[in-house]
């Protein structure tokens, strides 16, 4: 039968069936990997908290992971940026070793006390595992792009328990100002199914209770816009600082394993000097505190410094959970100044700093609704979009391309920043 003669809805059936199958396989692989990763991360965190002396082994741990990557992981060291580059310009299948290497590196980072996140690990595992299906299904370049995007969506969804935000993140993160709608169906199927796979494996995600809000009014909208601008500037500062430190270390420390070893010394000594472990690891407990009570106004600065020191010197992990911490604690500090409830400002900072640093305002807005409820939608949209506008044209992902400038009339020099 000539398929081209069938009505268009019927011609779509093979496409839907094909991507239901492939996206479901991606979801199973990414969701299972994320579940194992989250359980391992929980064990590593509890072990470190029970044995604080492990922090002093952080330099040695950093050196060991750096040595492993130097000898076996050069081809996958770019991490998330490698996946984004392969989507833009497909060349060769992402090596499967990316998944176990980043898993090991991130768990080690958390076990010994680096300040890193988990999104980067889940996304890299999701993308690397998904790309192994390229040969199985003999996919063309265009289909491989979609496959990788589905892997990114599945990894993000399953590690945070936010399937809608995960799907949109995979579509939005590739280029500033543009989205790839040709992958919308596979990304949503993969993200929704991966979240369910994680839940089936017994994964439990942290619940953040936004116990107070404010009416949508002129004064509250103005306050949220002001906060959003600051959230965007902080996200931009975080991204630029991390890139700058990474470039500095690569220029002045030629032997790669020494970079995280030096970073480990800095982090360990800084923790000892501060007398608290509050700013290392994921910091989930502090994020939860930000929704419940006023916190020290410098918490966001300290977490930012510890995270830049960790990621900028080469420790493995993600940026997003530290950005949640920075945003939630910054919002908590801004609440009395803007005369808004601190649970509301903590929630908005949680997503808006990430929106600015990653240039993903839509995914961040949807994430706010998934995590905190539909009532936060208008405020979250304002905060995330304003943060996106104020964060410049750089972000935490170097391979992210500029699809469309954030506003017209920018001077040429500013457009390049």
Q: So what's the overall shape?
A: globular
Name the CATH superfamily assignment of the largest domain: Clc chloride channel
Give the CA-CA distance, first to last residue.
Answer: 55 Å
Mean pLDDT comes to 94
Q: Based on the coordinates given, report the CATH architecture of the largest domain.
A: Orthogonal Bundle
β-strand amount: under 5%
Q: How many H/I helices?
A: 18
In CATH, the topology of the largest domain is named Clc chloride channel
Radius of gyration: 21 Å
Strand order of the largest sheet: 1-2
For the record, the count of structural domains works out to 2
Which CATH C-level class of the largest domain is it? Answer: Mainly Alpha
The SSE order reads HHHHHHHHEHHHHHHHHHEH
Secondary-structure-derived class: mainly alpha
Characteristics of this structure?
Cl-channel_core; ClC; mainly alpha; Voltage-gated chloride channel family protein; Clc chloride channel; disordered C terminus; membrane; globular; transmembrane
Strands, helices and their partners?
Elements (H helix, E strand, L loop, with lengths): L7 H43 L7 H15 L7 H9 L9 H15 L6 H13 L1 H5 L3 H20 L2 H10 L2 E2 L7 H17 L17 H35 L5 H17 L9 H7 L8 H14 L7 H19 L3 H17 L2 H12 L4 H14 L10 E2 L9 H4 L2
Parallel strand pairs: 1-2
Describe the structure.
By secondary structure, this protein is an all-alpha fold. It has 2 domains: 15-200, Orthogonal Bundle (Clc chloride channel), CATH 1.10.3080.10; 218-415, Clc chloride channel (Orthogonal Bundle), CATH 1.10.3080. 69% of the residues lie in helices and 1% in strands. It has 18 helices and 2 strands. A two-stranded parallel sheet has the order 1-2. Helix 5 (119-131) runs antiparallel to helix 7 (141-160). The radius of gyration is 21 Å and the shape is globular. The N and C termini lie far apart (55 Å). The relative contact order is 0.14.
């Amino acid at each position: 039968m000539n398929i081209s003669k069938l009505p268009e809805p019927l011609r779509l059936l093979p496409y839907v069936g094909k991507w239901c199958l492939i996206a479901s396989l991606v979801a199973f692989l990414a969701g299972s990997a994320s579940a194992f990763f989250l359980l391992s991360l929980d064990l590593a965190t509890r072990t470190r908290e029970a044995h604080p002396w492990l922090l002093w082994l952080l330099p040695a741990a950093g050196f060991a992971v750096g040595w492993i990557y130097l000898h076996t992981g050069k081809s996958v060291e770019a991490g998330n940026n490698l996946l984004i580059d392969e989507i833009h310009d497909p060349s060769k299948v992402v090596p499967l070793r990316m998944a176990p290497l980043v898993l090991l590196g991130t768990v080690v980072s958390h076990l010994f006390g680096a300040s890193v996140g988990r999104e980067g690990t889940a996304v890299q595992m999701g993308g690397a595992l998904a790309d192994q299906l390229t040969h199985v299904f003999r996919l063309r370049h265009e289909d491989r792009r979609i496959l990788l995007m589905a892997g990114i969506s599945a990894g993000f969804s399953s590690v945070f328990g936010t399937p809608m935000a995960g799907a949109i993140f995979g579509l939005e993160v590739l280029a500033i100002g543009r989205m790839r709608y040709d992958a919308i169906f596979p990304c949503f199927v993969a993200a929704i199914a991966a979240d369910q796979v994680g839940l089936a494996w017994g994964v439990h995600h942290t619940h953040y209770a936004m116990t107070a809000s404010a009416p949508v009014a002129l004064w509250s909208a103005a306050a949220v816009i002001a906060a959003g601008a600051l959230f965007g500037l902080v996200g931009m500062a975080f991204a630029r600082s991390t890139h700058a430190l990474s470039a500095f270390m690569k220029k002045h420390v030629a032997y790669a394993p020494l970079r995280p070893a030096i970073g480990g010394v800095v982090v360990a000594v800084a923790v000892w000097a501060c007398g608290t472990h509050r700013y290392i690891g994921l910091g989930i407990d502090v994020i939860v505190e930000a929704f419940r009570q006023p916190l020290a106004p410098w918490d966001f600065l300290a977490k930012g410094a510890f995270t830049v020191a960790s990621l900028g010197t080469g420790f493995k992990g993600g940026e997003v959970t530290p950005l949640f911490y920075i945003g939630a604690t910054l919002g908590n500090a801004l609440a009395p100044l803007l005369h808004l409830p601190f649970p509301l400002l903590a929630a908005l900072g949680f997503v808006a700093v990430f929106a600015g640093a990653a240039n993903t305002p839509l995914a961040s807005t949807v994430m706010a609704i998934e995590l905190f409820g539909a009532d936060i939608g208008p405020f979250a949209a304002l905060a995330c979009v304003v943060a996106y506008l104020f964060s410049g044209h750089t972000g935490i992902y170097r391979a992210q391309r500029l699809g469309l400038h954030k506003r017209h009339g920018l001077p040429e020099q500013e457009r390049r920043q």
